[in-house]
Amino acid sequence: MSFEQYPHLPRKIIIGTGYEKCGTTTAHDVLSKSSIVAAPSKKETVFFNRDFDRGLDYYLSLYEIREQTKVMIDITPSYHLTQIAYDRIKKLAADHLIVLFVRDPIRRAFSLYWHNIVNHFSIGETAQVSNPTLFSTPFKKSFSEVASTYNNYCIDLNRSIRRATESFGLEKTILIYFDEVMDGSFLHKIESSLGYKLGITNTAGWSNKRSPIKYDLVSNDGQDILVLKRGNTITRKWPIEQIGWSAACRVLASTQYWTQHVTRKEYEIIYNKLYKDMDLASVGLDRDRLFEFGEMTSAG
Prior knowledge:
By secondary structure, the protein is an alpha/beta fold. The protein is 33% helix and 18% strand. The protein has a domain at 3-105 and 155-208: P-loop containing nucleotide triphosphate hydrolases (Rossmann fold, 3-Layer(aba) Sandwich), CATH 3.40.50.300. The protein contains twelve helices and ten strands. The longest helix is centred in the middle third of the chain and has 15 residues, at 105-119.
């Protein structure tokens, strides 16, 4: 199984292998604007780590390859989690450009923590407990506890970036900072590596905006109801008579954990423990550019 079996395919593929909450959705949407770029029908194909056994025909079915197509893109941040994904990429896609999207690792971790709580834990979409529900899943681990060691939230940047560069080589791996995605300048790096322009002029916008969710109690025809709101829209509701007051209060109280602030002092504690002594220059990172000292909130 190899891309070489398909002579009609463009020879170049850009693969974004990391990291979550670093502007990857915006980068995907910007690159998709090019008439010479083929983007998949879903932003994250998860082919090289999850759906590889479905075969290359399945993978290619996610794309519309046109006559003018020069490059394919696959921005799936979770590829950075496993070496096997890198091995598969090297085996199948000979002419690849690997992009690592990077951001202040503490702010990235907090953004991912809040994203998971709001969009997964809060509605019971987690494998941490068997048969999870909104009312059985605990939301009681604060961000400071989550960020006490290297894990899926606070990544070991040295180890992770070095694994990528050792797998693909420095000439095929580029680092793109979060601010470069936000101001559109990341395109210059990619075009320089490709050796040609992509013809994209409009890079404005931040694609991955979501309205914060909120739980509240309402009364409807004498019935008390726990409601889940996103913005001003009620998206789910549970009668208190059905779930019980203790469960409802537990969910409402948990809100305090995922709308919290992280103070500058807490930020510095995490930084000093995990990143102060890390030799970031050895993997091509500018420490002063990467870290943004200050407070963080889930709304920011």
